[in-house]
Amino acid sequence: MGDVHPQGNPHFYLDPYNIPKIAFLITERLCYLDRENCPFYQKNLNSFKERWNKKLSIWNKQMKKLEGKEVFEYHRLFDYFLIRYKIDISGTLESLPGIPPTTAHLLELVDISKKQNVSFILYAVYNPEKSVQFLQKKTGIKAVLLPHDVNALIEVKDIYSLFDEIVRRLTGD
Ligand SMILES: [Zn+2]
Q: pTM of the predicted model, to two decimals?
């Protein structure tokens, strides 16, 4: 059926708790390739983790108010982030990952929105806006464009501002 996620959802780096794990693996690899400078990489990893943990506690506090909210998302892009912060995914605009939305499927989402209190329609820069706007018009639910990676939006210069901007756009803080 053209699912682009046959081996599972690859967007795991959008859970901010996975970033230090990725940093650890990169450090391990650098140490393997360049044993001599391993202490340098490890020192950087430690200071990164320290800075990251401070950011995590800020994001956690900000995201607390969205706990239990429901959202639609265009693609299963933000699942890891949403699950981390206990936000329910009421549906995706794509009927399957990588399959463009059909009108019939979008109308199913309109039906869902009548029974459930969906707060946002989440989408990324490369998702076609037409179906997002269609759903927004039919339901009155606010559409929110989220950065999915560094440089996806002008505000997102690095891994810190990636999550700063996602949180800011969701919470309004
Ligand atoms: Zn994907």
A: 0.94
Cα–Cα nearest to 27, from 48, 51, 53: 48
Among residues 108, 121, 27, which one has the least CA distance to residue 82?
Answer: 121
Q: For residue 7, what pLDDT is reported?
A: 82
Distance 76 CA to ligand 1 centre (A): 6
The span from the CA of 135 to the CA of 157, in Å, is: 31
In angstroms, what is the span from residue 133 Cα to ligand 1's centroid?
21
Å from CA of 27 to ligand 1 middle: 26
Structure confidence at residue 97 (pLDDT): 86
Residue 10 CA to ligand 1 centre (angstroms): 6
Say yes or no to pLDDT of 3 above 70: no
Cα–Cα dist 45/26, whole Å = 9
Pairing of strands 118-123, 70-73: parallel
Query: 149 CA distance to ligand 1 centroid (A)?
Result: 12
Distance 78 CA to ligand 1 centre (A): 9
Helical H runs in 11-158? 19-33, 38-63, 79-84, 103-115, 129-139
